[in-house]
Predict the structure of Phosphate ABC transporter ATP-binding protein PstB.
Amino acid sequence: MPTTETKQEQKTGIIADIALEAKNFSMYYSNFKAVKNVSMAFPKNDVTALIGPSGCGKSTFLRSLNRMNDIIPGTRMEGEILLDGNNILDPTVDVVELRRQIGMVWQRPNPFEKSVFDNVAYGPKYQGIRNKKKLEEIVEESLRKAALWDEVKDRLHTSAKALSGGQQQRLCIARSIAIKPRILLLDEPTSALDPISTMKIEELVVELKKEYTIIIVTHNMQQAARISSYTAFFLMGDLIEYDQTNNMFLSPSKQETSDYIAGRFG
Ligand SMILES: Nc1ncnc2c1ncn2[C@@H]1O[C@H](COP(=O)(O)OP(=O)(O)OP(=O)(O)O)[C@@H](O)[C@H]1O
């Protein structure tokens, strides 16, 4: 009989094309170890869900993947997170360029106090693109990819804050896409949205995986089951189980996973 560890290694070992990989990664808030010795690989052009009860460290881990925790004083990280074989935790890494490659969408839609157009054009302008036609092309392409173009094409120059919550969240996705990332980190992107808007975001995520690697934190297990190919279950900072989503939900190998999925805690 293989040990559980061996079984999991075998299962995660079937990821043929790895976009990003954590190796023995830990993250501390001062002396508190919020993420503990996590090793896992994220498949390219696919969706991986991070699930677990409140406080288990899934958002902290997600934010570590593009060094977003750096902005919190007193944080410390150990281990490695590899992108193309390079450790992104290395102090010499250019975090602005890293965050261009690994974009982030937050729980609450947070468009800038600018027009729809200027929200999407912001990143490309920051990168030095000034040509008006080129910017128009990028804005249209990004809004189309975020499944928002048809709804906003006649109001590009009105305030983004006037959009609905669901539209604002798709605008935030368009804003991320506009700077051509390779990986998108989504931190509970639908938790503030109504069911119809949630469905649109879920459809969008499934569409976007053709072009991007997507890592999503969700409280919603049905959502993880609907849109992800792999799921990682965290508990008190530990990665308890990582597997293909179908296996995880149909035959979890750990009791804690089974209890959580069955709604016995969390
Ligand atoms: N800025 C911070 N300073 C100190 N501790 C923090 C900070 N942010 C999170 N923590 C702690 O780290 C642990 C993990 O928090 P985290 O937000 O990553 O969990 P989570 O699983 O994403 O929870 P939720 O689903 O409620 O967002 C928790 O114990 C939390 O209290």
Q: What stands out?
A: Confidence is low (pLDDT under 50) at residues 1-8. The CA atoms of residues 11 and 243 lie 6 Å apart. Residues 29, 32, 34, 52, 54-60, 72 surround adenosine-5'-triphosphate (CB under 6 Å).
